[in-house]
Amino acid sequence: MLTRNKIATFILGFAGVLPTSAQEIGYRSSAAVQYFGSFQRATNDNGVTHDSSNSAGVLATYRFYFSRYHGVEADYGYTRNTQHYSLGGNRSDLLVNAHEVTAAYVLRRPGRIWTPFALAGAGALIFAPDNSGRDAQARATFVYGVGADLNFSDRWFVRAQYRGLVFNSPAIGVSTVASERLTHGAQPSIGLGWRF
Predict the structure, then answer these.
(1) What number of other Cβ atoms are within 10 A of residue 183's Cβ?
(2) What residues in the chain have per-residue pLDDT under 50?
(3) Domain-embedded: residue 22
(4) Which CATH number belongs to the domain containing residue 170 in this structure?
(5) Mean pLDDT, rounded, of the chain
């Protein structure tokens, strides 16, 4: 009988803690839309130089927090740029629609005014040539970033962040010798978000 009372007390005590923990976390989900700049580092392989025009794009993010400090996010980004391939004196330019789909772990430190965060994850970049008849090409990518949310209320915030993408440069059938080297894309961004 004493054991049942202890079990019942433990269950009731644990159940009493759950609402308090949920209140400490606050809103578990957030969505943000950001405007970003895309800057890709040039690569050189087998005499082929590859680089990309700087461009602007849009990034949509959904985050879910498991606890006050730990969460995950899913992202979709879009930009349109020109991929440049040079071999000797010959140069070829290819207009592409670049899509990014990533998921990341997020570590944050919630604050009343500022909520800084860091993230790391993986995903894919899809380079789809525009009206060229060439097939799209996907590249696996590692993503990392840091940033902060400026809280205007308990629900609305402005997000400023820097994301870095590490991936193999695309080689979209421009020549028989293509540049496929590890490169880095930088994406500083700013946007508006909402917690729910």
Answers:
(1) 20
(2) 14-23, 176
(3) no
(4) 2.40.160.20
(5) 87
